[in-house]
Amino acid sequence: MQQVKRAATAPANPSSQDRSVAAKASREEAKARAELLKPQVDEKVEDKSRILSVYKNEFQESTFSVTA
Fold first, then answer.
1. Cβ contacts of 67 within 8 Å, gap of 6 or more
2. What is the DSSP letter of 9?
3. pLDDT greater than 60 at residue 5
4. Whether pLDDT at 64 is above 70
C-alpha cells in the first residue's frame, strides 16, 4: 500500500483521483496494521484479566480482623 500511495502522490500536482487513491491506500494500510496488532492486544487483555482474577481470589481468601 505504501508503494501505491507513493505512486499516487508522485505527480507535482496530484489529481483528486490520485489523492483519493492515496487516501484509500492509507486507510487500507491502517486497517492491516490494526489487524496485525489485534492478537497482541487480546493477549494483553487476557493477561490482565488473569492477574486481576488472582488478586481477587487472594483478597477473598484473606481474612481481616479488626480489634477495638
1. none
2. T
3. yes
4. no
Domain limits, the chain: 2-61
CB 22 within 8 A of CB 8: yes
- Cell numbers representing residue 39 in the block: 492478537
- Other CB atoms within 10 A of residue 28 CB: 13
Q: Summarize pLDDT for 27-42 with one digit per residue, the tens.
A: 999 999 888 888 887 7
Q: Quick one: 8 exposed, middle or buried, by C-beta within 10 A (0-12, 13-18, 19+)?
A: buried
19 CB contacts (<8 Å, ≥6 apart)? 8, 9
For residues 66 and 32, give the distance between their C-alpha atoms in angstroms, rounded to a whole number. Answer: 56
Indicate left, alpha or beta for 36 from its phi (over 0: left) and psi (-120 to 50: alpha): alpha
